[in-house]
Design brief:
The chain is mainly alpha-helical. The chain is 63% helix and 2% strand. The longest helix has 48 residues, at 387-434.
C-alpha cells in the first residue's frame, strides 16, 4: 500500500496535479508516518506554492533532504536567519545538505543578508560541485565576482560532467541488468498486469504443474503417450525436499507413480533416441521466483490471512533435454514446453493453509501434442538456464555493459564539451553585461549559433545591453523581436517598457502593458510596464501604485524599488525616494541606477558632497555610462573642483558622442572658469548635435552678452524662445533680455541659463 500511494503521489506531481498529490500524500503520511513520507508531502506543498505548509511539516526533521526543503521554505517566507541556521549549523562536521543546490541556496541567503564574500564562496562551491548549475554563475556575475567563463567551464568541468553522468548511466544499467536477469531467471507466467480472478486461478494451476513437472527424478514422469490419467496430488514440497534435490539425493515422491514404465521412457526422447545426461546434474536446476509477487497473488486468491508458502519452487531434471520451460505471453494462457513435449495440463489450484494439505481435483492431460521447432526450444532452454550458466550470462552482461560504457563515455565527453563551449559564450556575454561592458557583451553574444542567439533569454540580454548604451531604438528593435518570437517570455520586459518610456512611444507602451497583463498579472514586470505607462502620461500617483504592486509581488525585484524612487522624486517626496533607493541597494548593491537616484536627490537638495559620493559609487559600477559621468562632473563642479569636473565631462563625451548633456555642462564649467571662447567653441559643436535645444542658444546668448556682443546675444535669446522652452527657462531668458543693456549687473550673472 505504501509503494502504491507513493507512486501515485509521484505520478500526480509529474502530471502537475498538485491537489491530488497533496491528498494522496496525506493518506500516505497518515498510514505510514515517516520522515521520508513527510519529505514527499512537503515537496507537494512547495510545488503548490504553499511554502508555509512545508515549513511546519519539516520543522525539526533531520534528513539532509528535509533540511534543504525546510531551508527553501524559510527562504521563500523570507525567514533568512532560520534558513541559514538549517543549512549551516554551528556544528562544523555537518555538511551543507543537498550538495550544489544547498550551497547555492546558502549563497542566496548570504547575498540577501549583505554578506558578499560568504555568498561568493558558496556560489563557487556550488559551481565546483556541479558545473552545470548556471544559476550560481549568474549570481556571481550579478555580484561582479565571476571569473571568466573560459576558466569556469573548462576541461576540468567537462571531465566532472562526464564522470558524473557515466556513473549515473552505469548505475542505471547495472540496476536494469539486475532486473532483467531476475526476470529471466524468474520467468513468471504473468505476462501482463491483468490480474483477473480467472487468470489468477489459471496462474495458480500452472504453478502446480510447474512443481509436478520439475521433480521427475523423485517419481516417474507422466507418459508421453498422451493418455489421460488421474492422480492424487500433494502440496508444494517442503524446503527439506528442495535441499535434498539440490544435494543430488532423491526426495520422497510428490505423488504416486501412475506409470511404472515412465522412468524408462525418460531415457529416450520423443523420437526414441537415447538421451545424453548432463554433466551438471549434481546441482539440480532451480527457477527462482519472486516470492513477494506470488504472495500478493495468493492473498488475492484466498481470503485467509495465515502464512502461505511459495508454491512455485524451481527444479529441473538431470537431463537438459527433459527440462521443462515456462513461456509466458501477453495472453491468459501459458504452455509447458520440453523435448518430451508435455501436453497442456489444466488443474485447479492447491495451497497450504496453516500447514495442512489441501488436495485438488484430478489432473487431466490433453490428447494432442504441441509441435515446437528446435529454435524455440533452444530459446526456452536458455531462458531457464541452470546455475552453471548463470556465470556465463553475468560475464556476457558485464562485457556488454563495459562496451556500452566505453561508447557512452565518448558520447558524454563530446556532449559535455559541446555544452560547456556553449555555456562559455553565454556566460562570458552575461558576465561582461553585468560589468557594464555592453559592447564587449554584444560582440560575445554575436558569436553564438543562430538558434541560440534567437532565444528569449539571449535576446533580452542583448536588448538590455543596447539600453545601457542608451541606444534606445536598437533596444526597441531587439525587444520587439523577442516579443514576436516569445510572447510568453517576460524577463526584460520591465527594461523594454523603460525603453519605450524614453522614446515617448505611448501607444506601444500602452499596448505592451495590456499584453503583459493578459499574459501574467502576477509578474512584477507587468506592473512595471503599467507604471511606466502612467508615468509617461505624468500621472505619477497611479504610476507609484503600480510600482508598489510590483514590489508586493516580488520584494526582491530591485528595479521595481528603483522605479518607485523615481516617482517619489518626480513628486518631490525625497524622503520616501531615498528609502526606495536604499531598499533596491539592499537587494543588489551593484544596482547603479539606485546609486544614481540617490545622487540626484542630494544634488537637488544641494548636498553636493553626498551627491558626489553616490554618483561616484554608480560610476565605479558602470564606468562607461555617459549620463553617470556627466552628473558626477556636475557634482564636482558644484564642489569647485573644476579640473576633475572637466576631465569627467571629456570622458562622458567620449563614452557617448550623441549625448548632448556633457558638452553643455562642459561649456558651463568653462564659462565659470572665464574661458568664454572655449565655451563658445563647445556650444557651436553642440548645436550640430542638438539643434533644437533651447538651453544651448540661451547659454550662447549669455556668453555674447558678457562679451558685450548684444546683437548676437539678442539673436540667440530669441532663438531660444522660439524653441518653446519650459516655463522656468522662459522667465530666465526674458529676464536676461531685459538686462542686456545693464552692464553693472553682468558681473553678478553666473552665466548659466536653465
Amino acid at each position: 500500500m505504501e509503494a502504491i500511494l507513493a507512486d501515485s503521489v509521484r505520478n500526480s506531481l509529474e502530471q502537475l496535479l498538485y491537489r491530488n498529490a497533496i491528498f494522496m500524500c496525506e493518506r500516505l503520511c497518515a498510514e505510514f508516518p515517516s520522515e521520508r513520507n513527510l519529505l514527499l508531502l512537503a515537496n507537494c506543498y512547495l510545488h503548490n506554492n504553499q511554502a508555509y505548509c512545508a515549513y511546519h511539516i519539516l520543522k525539526g526533521t533531520q534528513m539532509a533532504q528535509c533540511r534543504y526543503l525546510f531551508a527553501l521554505s524559510c527562504f521563500q517566507m523570507n525567514l533568512l536567519n532560520e534558513a541559514e541556521a538549517t543549512l549551516s549549523p554551528n556544528d562544523s562536521s555537518v555538511e551543507v545538505p543537498n550538495g550544489a543546490a544547498g550551497h547555492y541556496l546558502l549563497g542566496l541567503v548570504y547575498r540577501y543578508t549583505d554578506r558578499r564574500q560568504s555568498a561568493i564562496y558558496h556560489f563557487n562551491q556550488a559551481l565546483s560541485l556541479d558545473p552545470l548549475l548556471w544559476a550560481a554563475y549568474e549570481e556571481l556575475c550579478i555580484l561582479g565576482s565571476a571569473e571568466e567563463a573560459t576558466s569556469v567551464f573548462d576541461e576540468a568541468s567537462v571531465l566532472s560532467v562526464q564522470k558524473r553522468y557515466i556513473d549515473h548511466e552505469l548505475t542505471s544499467q547495472s540496476s536494469q541488468a539486475t532486473i532483467d536477469d531476475h526476470d529471466i531467471s524468474s520467468n513468471t507466467v504473468i505476462g501482463t498486469e491483468d490480474f483477473s480472478p480467472g487468470k489468477l486461478k489459471q496462474i495458480h494451476g500452472n504453478n502446480l504443474r510447474d512443481v509436478s513437472g520439475k521433480y521427475p527424478s523423485a517419481t516417474s514422469s507422466q507418459p508421453v503417450t498422451g493418455a489421460a490419467s488421474s492422480v492424487p496430488m500433494y502440496s508444494t514440497p517442503s524446503p527439506v525436499v528442495v535441499q535434498a534435490q539440490i544435494s543430488g539425493i532423491a526426495p520422497p515422491p510428490l505423488y504416486r507413480n501412475p506409470n511404472p514404465n515412465a522412468q524408462c521412457n525418460r531415457a529416450f526422447g520423443a523420437d526414441n533416441t537415447p538421451r545424453v545426461p548432463n554433466s551438471t546434474n549434481q546441482g539440480l536446476r532451480r527457477k527462482y521466483v519472486d516470492e513477494g509477487k506470488l504472495r500478493k497473488v495468493s492473498e488475492r486468491l484466498f481470503s485467509d490471512s495465515g502464512s502461505r508458502r511459495n508454491i512455485r519452487l524451481a527444479g529441473e531434471s538431470a537431463s537438459t533435454n527433459s527440462a521443462t520451460s515456462l513461456l509466458s505471453g501477453n495472453g491468459p494462457s501459458s504452455k509447458f514446453i520440453g523435448v518430451s513435449k508435455f501436453n497442456s495440463i489444466s488443474s485447479r489450484s492447491v495451497t497450504t493453509r496453516k500447514g495442512q494439505l489441501w488436495s485438488c481435483e484430478s489432473v487431466e492431460e490433453g490428447a494432442h501434442h504441441d509441435h515446437i521447432d528446435d529454435s524455440r526450444l533452444n530459446i526456452t532452454a536458455s531462458s531457464s538456464s541452470p546455475c552453471c550458466n548463470n556465470r556465463t550470462i553475468e560475464l556476457e552482461g558485464a562485457a556488454r555493459t563495459l562496451g556500452t560504457a566505453r561508447f557512452s563515455s565518448s558520447r558524454i565527453h563530446d556532449g559535455a564539451t559541446d555544452l560547456l563551449v556553449l555555456l562559455r559564450l553565454i556566460g562570458e556575454g552575461f558576465r561582461l553585461s553585468c560589468l557594464c561592458r555592453c559592447q564587449d557583451a554584444l560582440d560575445t553574444f554575436a558569436k553564438l549559433p543562430h538558434k541560440h542567439y534567437n532565444t528569449g533569454w539571449v535576446l533580452s540580454q542583448v536588448g538590455k545591453a543596447f539600453f545601457e548604451m542608451v541606444d534606445y531604438h536598437e533596444a526597441d528593435r531587439i525587444f520587439s523581436l523577442a516579443r514576436i518570437a516569445y510572447p510568453y517570455f517576460l524577463e526584460g520586459m520591465d527594461i523594454y517598457s523603460t525603453v519605450l518610456y524614453h522614446l515617448k512611444e505611448d501607444m506601444k507602451l500602452s499596448y505592451l502593458a495590456q499584453e503583459l497583463v493578459s499574459t501574467d498579472r502576477l509578474a512584477p514586470q507587468t506592473w512595471c510596464a503599467m507604471g511606466n505607462c502612467y508615468s509617461l502620461q505624468k500621472d505619477h500617483e497611479s504610476a507609484l501604485k503600480n510600482f508598489h504592486r510590483a514590489v508586493q509581488l516580488n520584494s526582491r525585484f530591485a528595479y521595481a524599488h528603483t522605479l518607485c524612487g523615481h516617482e517619489y522624486v518626480a513628486l518631490e517626496d525625497y524622503e520616501n525616494g531615498i528609502k526606495c533607493y536604499q531598499s533596491a541597494l539592499r537587494i543588489d548593491s551593484r544596482h547603479y541606477n539606485a546609486w544614481y537616484g540617490l545622487g540626484m536627490i542630494y544634488l537637488r537638495q544641494e548636498m553636493f558632497a553626498f551627491s558626489e559620493h553616490h554618483f561616484r559609487m554608480a560610476f565605479q559600477i558602470n564606468s562607461l555610462s555617459s549620463v553617470v559621468m556627466s552628473y558626477l562632473g556636475i557634482a564636482l563642479h558644484a564642489l569647485k573642483r573644476n579640473g576633475e569636473a572637466l576631465k569627467m565631462m571629456d570622458g562622458a563625451v567620449l563614452a557617448d558622442r550623441k549625448n548632448p548633456l556633457p558638452l553643455y555642462q562642459k561649456a558651463n564649467i568653462l564659462v565659470s572658469m572665464e574661458d568664454l571662447d572655449g565655451a563658445l567653441s563647445v556650444l557651436e559643436e553642440l548645436k550640430e548635435c542638438a539643434p533644437c535645444e533651447s538651453s544651448v542658444y540661451a547659454l550662447m546668448g549669455s556668453i555674447y552678452r558678457r562679451r558685450n556682443m548684444f546683437d548676437k546675444a539678442m539673436l540667440h535669446f530669441g532663438l531660444a524662445l522660439d524653441l518653446k522652452p519650459s516655463a522656468a527657462d522662459v522667465a530666465t531668458i526674458k529676464a536676461a533680455i531685459e538686462k542686456l543693456h545693464v552692464p553693472d549687473e553682468i558681473e553678478d550673472d553666473d552665466g548659466s541659463i536653465g
